[in-house]
Target: Inositol 2-dehydrogenase
Amino acid sequence: MSTLGIAVIGAGRMGADHARRIGRTAGGARVVAVADPDAGRAKEVAAGLDGAYALTDPAAAVAAPGVGAVLIASPAAAHEEAVGYALERGLPVLCEKPLAPDAAGALRVVEAEQRLGRRLVQVGFMRRHDAEYGLLKELLDAGGIGRPLFLHCRHRNASSPPFFTADMLLGDSAVHEVDAARWLLGQEVTAVSVFAPAPSSLAPEGLGDPRFVLMETSGGALVDVEVFVNCGFGYEVRCEAVGESGSASLGEPQAVEVRRAGLRAQAVPQDFTVRFADAYDRQLRRWVAAAARGGVAGPDAWDGYAAAAVCEAAVASARSGVRTAVELVERPPLYR
Ligand SMILES: NC(=O)c1ccc[n+]([C@@H]2O[C@H](COP(=O)([O-])OP(=O)(O)OC[C@H]3O[C@@H](n4cnc5c(N)ncnc54)[C@H](O)[C@@H]3O)[C@@H](O)[C@H]2O)c1
Ligand SMILES: O[C@H]1[C@H](O)[C@@H](O)[C@H](O)[C@@H](O)[C@H]1O
Model:
């Protein structure tokens, strides 16, 4: 089997992390080019990879000799353009979430794939590759707790980066729960309402952190999400599914429990690269195997579009204070 050459677009935190993982865990692939407008970052990441070269132009990286697939980890606003470079060349793509910052951009990707007549774009909703989420999905699909009535979700980050905005709290963070809910339930989100307590005085001003998101689904379930990106104590993602005949939950701490000095304690992971390390590896292995055959293995461009549309409605609801319906175009046959 020949080795799949990958161009990594965006050499920040996630680009660097994925690039390292490709060499370590995704057999049959290697990074051949790294592109970032910040030449120093591209060089630094490429230097840690055997034989990869650094560029500042994403289009040139995608067109570089030996590139057979593209991993995009630039900021959301740059995703659509980079996906376009890959699709022009018929190359498989793993694009970090969100597929685009708005539904219109994500829909243009769906339309470009339809013109090609092939699904080439996978979106980096890595929770679908997490072992606990996988078990919950199997249980729900098997009817193990009956018809699902509720998903109660919590999404907490220790702190948000300096560039984080109120809209990103929904489009960049809660977007994971939007995708997970659609996937776990096998239903679309039809309406969304966003509520907020008085913002945490410990969060950056103007961020409106935390938020409470309530989603209604096509099958009559309700999904609530606490998104709190400056909780201070660590990274915590939990989900409890409640069905007609039982409940199931994930995200309880997996760490060793220590009893000392009158306390019983377990460490909380400090960020996503720890909590979802296995999921990122599994996502890469599955994508590399599928990309070598010219396809995808996980959430596709339609999923990226549907999630973007829900987040856009959530942003509208957060601004207006009003329940907002989610409008989706008809699902094209390519994604059925
Ligand atoms: N799946 C996850 O758990 C997860 C976690 C963190 C971030 N993300 C996603 O990954 C993406 C990147 O996030 P990050 O935390 O690595 O951000 P980052 O700011 O650390 O890195 C982004 C990099 O992209 C570069 N860049 C800017 N414009 C570019 C362009 N037009 N083309 C190529 N590179 C460009 C920047 O110079 C920077 O080096 C975002 O979409 C984010 O939502 C996903
Ligand atoms: O980009 C990151 C990433 O997607 C994390 O998984 C999520 O927990 C953060 O809230 C988000 O900002």
Remarks:
- Residues 9-15, 35-38, 41, 58, 73-76, 78, 96-97, 124, 126, 172, 272 surround nicotinamide-adenine-dinucleotide (ligand 1) (CB under 6 Å).
- The chain has a mean pLDDT of 97.
- The chain has two domains: 4-126+278-299, 127-275+307-335.
- DSSP finds ten helices and 15 strands in the chain.
